[in-house]
Amino acid sequence: MTQEIEIIKSSGEKVKFSLEKLRNSLKHSGANHNLVEKIVDCVRDELYEGITTHEIYNRAFALLKKEKNSVFASKYKLKKAIYELGPTGFPFERFVSAILEYSGYATKVGVTINGICVTHEIDVIAEKNGCTTIVECKFHGEEGRNCNVKIPLYIHSRYNDVKAHWVSQKSKTKTLDLGWVVTNTRFTTHAIRYGKCAGLYLLSWDYPKKNGLKDRIDRLGLYPVTVSTLLSNREKNFLLSRDIVLCRQLWKDKFYLDHLGVSNLRKEKILEEIKNLCNQ
Length: 280
Fold this sequence. Notes:
The protein is built from 13 helices and 7 strands. By secondary structure, the protein is α/β, with parallel strands linked by helices. The protein folds into 3 domains: 2-76, no CATH class; 90-220, Trna Endonuclease, Chain: A, domain 1, CATH 3.40.1350.10; 223-278. It has a 5-stranded mixed sheet, with helices on both faces. A two-stranded antiparallel ribbon has the order 1-2. The longest helix has 19 residues, at 150-168. The radius of gyration is 21 Å and the shape is globular. It starts with 5 loop residues before the first strand and ends with a helix.
């Protein structure tokens, strides 16, 4: 029975395989019922005791990629695509900044701000409705590494130092009202508990529920260029080095594909993929 098979997560933890989780992740890609069930059946037939979640993902992804509509495969690889924004974490900061901009914020990346005790380089400063938000990004390049309580503890202390200096400046016309911690992985239960208690806003892959990174990306069509199944790694790295982190940005600045020497036929296919991802 498939529900009795133990699989190994990226963290090394052993868990019971869940057909429903696989089915839901495939539905999330936009694949229709028949395609989802076809892939579920194929993956189920190839399960064995001790198979890794990475191997299961690779098999499902390969089957989706065979379909004419490559957007299914692109959406399915979203989590992996965010890991591909590394290794420095700077593209992830740009990515978070871009998501906030599409939610009505004016943003700046890599800003140095004075605290009472020391100066701090803040990953993202976001302003909206006269309020300023400090956003710190914690990027993990490897799966299975979650953000523990030390991260919000550290960031909260930095936020308090900045805020103490901020309120002492009479010339400040904008309110510093919130500190954010954003990660591409998950928060531990202790980290979430501390964040709630300290008044920090935590944003991770799946937290807050129904409003985590994956939900915001799907809802707004803000997919990173790394989700593309048609662009090569070299091409993706070129785009990231030009601060093109979103598919929407590439759709707007199509000339970058010409800089890459992409043929007209391939360019059409890439733009069709991008168009579908961005809901253009």
